Amino acid sequence: MNSDSENYSSLISKCIKTKHLKLGQLLHSHFIKTALTFSTFLANRLIEFYSKCNSIQSAYKVFHDIPIKNTHSWNIIISAYARFGLFNEAHHLLDKMPEPNLVSYTSLISGLGHYGFCKESLNVFKSMLKQCSNLIFNGFTLVSLVGSCARLCAPELLRQVHGAAVIMGLNSNIIIDNALLDAYAKCGEADVSFSIFSRMPERDVVSWTSMVAAYAQASRLEDAYRLFSQMQEKNTVSWTALIAGFTKNGRGNEALHLFEHMMEEGIPLSAFTFTCVLSACANLALIARGKQIHGYIIRSTSRNYFCNIFILNALIDMYCKCGQMRSATMLFEGMHEKDIVSWNSLITGFAQNGHGEESLAFFERMIETSTKPNHVTFLGLLSSCCHTGLVSEGLWILDLMEKDYGLRPRSDHYAIMIDLLGRNNRLEEAMCLIKRVSKGSDHVGMWGALLGACRIHGNMDLARKSAEVLLELEPGNAGRYVMLYNIYAAAGRWDEARQVRRLMMEKGLRKEAACSWIEVRNTRYQFFATERFHCQIKEVYEMIHNMVDHLYDSGYLPCHSSFLPEED
Q1: Per-residue pLDDT reduced to its tens digit, 154-178
Q2: Alpha-carbon 329 to chain mean position
Q3: How far apart are CA 307 and CA 224, in angstroms?
Q4: Burial 318-331 (b: 16+ CB within 10 A, else e)
Q5: Quick one: which H or E segment has residue 340?
Q6: pTM value?
Q7: DSSP per residue over 72-98, as a string?
Q8: If you placed Cys at 383, which of 65, 194, 351, 359 could pair as Cys (CB 3.0 to 4.6 Å)?
Q9: Cβ neighbours of residue 366 under 8 Å, at least 6 residues apart?
């Protein structure tokens, strides 16, 4: 390579670094005039320049015009097409390439994996092994492949890829080990992840964080916390992985405590950190804490936080679950961009808070924006109909789901519909729906909804049939026995009621104590039925008695006959 080529190559490198398309085009024009485009080396540099400047058509034109293409020419253009997600073109070029090498295949494998085409990524790998048996894949190929296996949650495929790498004698390093550790974790194989982790000669913060996340995903929170405590260096991802684990496993208070500790340590907060702690607040209905976090997001120096759709969706979900529909709606209306999660959160929020008509109105608005509904959307809509007794609308929505949107109703959708029919004393229709649904006879939710409706309307025959099915499907669920007892008691059939009670005692089942909670000054207070040892139990019962008096004054009469006592 002469000095002119070196100088021109240096100029092209500067154009790539600065993304200076105009200057690169001037150089290209000069090359054409001086016949330098016949230089394969400089032509390859131009292909790289155009692809890095997102001008794929210009890149292909340069490639097409090269009189003598070398392997590098083919690899650059294949890599460019794969990076842009143009896989048909990339496949076509790979097929036409005289002698594809490992780089050619790896570009396509990694591109497919990056865009979520994981099965196709693995198929290209299999094709590579068949057509080029002499090729031995490298670490970069392996990292792409194990990533695809992880996204498919395919542990068997992952073991095969891992085994092939070992057989081929691929030398392990920290990047490969981290990728394998993370992939096995995402496939639910935390013990295998720890086996890799424990054998690693060198570990970095990614290794430790991946292992913490592995235990958190497997609901082994004590192991995750123990490992987290041993970490010499912790970053945002490490803290967030543990917070996410506690939130996901219903231990929101610990998640919020960790969040406070994270802030005290001065660790930068990410969008995912905020979504996790807002989810914890939503699950615990801690509106005051949620508002504090909302305020922190507004005051944050990173204004991008408040434009982040994931954070905004988490805030809407939190306000909905805390019953603050006005705040949720204001946030929603202020969003510049809305996705299906935004619409679903609000539709479901209105449904859960008893505003069925508003839920349906927002669905109509959503359709007007050409946003396609999904299964979650229809769960929210059916719930809104159920909470407000809109039977005709519920049946219409169930029909609309499959007819207009090609979404086959799932067992959860049918369970809500059966609940809706049952609440409105259309028990025979509910029973027919169970019979009509494929595998409906094995779905606990459907029979549970029917049994609850039988209790309300005193239908003994259907109640007995529902209970028999449920006791067979869930023999250890005390709640089903309690409901059947209460149905018999309400009908004055005390012999059957006592028989149910006796069956519960024989199986060692106990009714779980009812629990409620309230948030006062950022502290959550729990109260259990029959509790006697709370520090303010006297005041609590005084308040309950006052409320009962108000109920009596309003004409309420309790039904004592259907009460199943906690103790004998």
Answers
A1: 898 899 888 878 877 776 788 989 9
A2: 23
A3: 32
A4: bbbbbebbebbbeb
A5: helix 340-352
A6: 0.76
A7: HHHHHHHHHHHHTT-HHHHHHHHHH-S
A8: 351
A9: 343, 347, 373, 377
